[in-house]
Amino acid sequence: MAGARGFSLLERFELKYHIPVEWADLIGQIISPYCEEDYYSKITPGGFYWITNLYLDSPNWTFLRWKKSRLLDRFNMRIRTYGEHPDPKGTFHFEVKRKIRNVCFKSRATIKGENPSFVFNHSPEEWPVKTERDRKYLEEYLYKVKTFNANPRLLTQYKRRAWFSTTEEYSRVTIDTCMRFREENGFDYTVDPRYMHSTGLPRFFAPGCDAVLELKCPCSQVPFWMMDLIHMLNLKLAGFSKFGNAAAEWQRVYENPRGFRTPNYTHLAGNFSD
Fold first, then answer.
1. What does the pLDDT read at residue 12?
2. What is the model's pLDDT at position 258?
3. Model pTM?
4. What's the CA dihedral at 140, 146, 147, 150 to 10 degrees?
5. How many Cβ atoms from other residues are within 10 Å of residue 16's Cβ?
6. Pairing between strand 9-19 and 172-183?
7. How far apart are CA 123 and CA 243, in angstroms?
8. Does the CA dihedral 239-63-114-266 come out positive or negative?
9. Which is it for strands 211-217 and 73-82: parallel, antiparallel or unpaired?
10. SS3 sequence of 120-142
11. How many Cβ atoms are within 10 Å of 180's Cβ, its own excluded?
12. Residue 167 carries which DSSP code?
């Protein structure tokens, strides 16, 4: 199980439900015979810790358009780190999340000790990766960046409480709330709450709900206890896209309603400072 937690590549189902955040303790109690809280939830008072994602997309929002058109084979790109105020030289995960019909594939490459801009300004031999597998996935990540002219667009944050299964190789339960974002066209992970815009808005949720419950498991192994949880709480599938909702609010906050603007940034290749 430890190997699955420090994954480089995952193939899984993801089931999403809208719930009141107050259900978190109850859900934790129900799944306690089969799961344990992850490390960050254990060490954070209340169990909810901050995740910060920098999403990339093309000037014409290629990945977002794929999602809105429900393309059967699509992906998005992000660079993830942890904490409400991330360490600018902490640990960063370069992730590609691909969806083919109802199956999600997630690849991850990790660097430590440098801002993500370092990767774009230095050769692969200089990247502060832990393993050669990280280097391989990072090279694939940059290939997609160049192919689709992907650049930083939105910095998003949310608070998460999470559990890992103790009975399967990889099953995971997460509850996310307090979604917010700001525009970001570089690699600045600085967060000032006064300039963050909420996407945890009532219009994005079912009535009475303010959190997203996700049940994640391998395609070949849907645990019985997940099915029991769904039936016990009478859960109904409901979509929620942190990237898509942030982009919708970005359009409302930053741009006139006729359409997205083209951001004013220089191209990634060699132009971002460390």
1. 79
2. 53
3. 0.87
4. 100
5. 17
6. unpaired
7. 30
8. negative
9. unpaired
10. HHCCHHHCCECCHHHHHHHHHHH
11. 20
12. S
Average pLDDT for consecutive 10-residue bins of the chain (274 residues)?
Answer: 47 91 97 96 96 97 93 95 95 95 89 97 96 95 97 98 92 96 96 93 94 90 92 94 93 64 40 36
Can you identify the CATH homologous superfamily of domain 2-254? Answer: VTC, catalytic tunnel domain (3.20.100.30)
Domain ranges of the chain: 2-254
At residue 239, the 3 state secondary structure works out as: coil
Query: What are the residues whose beta carbons fall under 8 Å from the beta carbon of 187, sequence distance 6 or more?
Result: 54, 79, 115, 116, 117, 152, 272
Quote the pLDDT of residue 182: 95
DSSP 260: P
CA 109 to chain centre: 14
Copy the structure tokens of residue 175: 């509850």
Token representation of residue 99: 């969806």
- Quote the tokens at residue 250: 């970005």
Euclidean distance between CA atoms 30 and 19, whole angstroms: 15
pLDDT score recorded for residue 2: 34
